[in-house]
Amino acid sequence: QVQLVESGGGLVQPGGSLRLSCAASGNVIRQNGMGWYRQAPGKQRELVPIASITRGGSTNYADSVKGRFTISRDSAKNTIDLQMNSLRPEDTAVYYCNFAPYYSNIYWGPGTQVTVSS
What we know:
By secondary structure, this protein is mainly β. The protein is built from one helix and ten strands.
């Protein structure tokens, strides 16, 4: 069974950077559009990806992260990465990867916690 596993989260000060990574078995990441989703404290998980990348490599970003976050696919490592720069307190959330533009409920992983605080 395919499992998506996120890593790279942590505590960072405002203005700092983090790089998240999502790994999966098989060719799931290479063969599908993928995205990063997040769930802020006390809120429901956003069901529209904040960043996504198509199978062909085209990327798309939510306005809230445009210009600060960069999604990429590493085909050699079979991962989807999210470089997050200029982090803000409102970026605090659990970050998940899944298919994009349409997620699959059976593939939600454990997520990785990102906390932006001074």
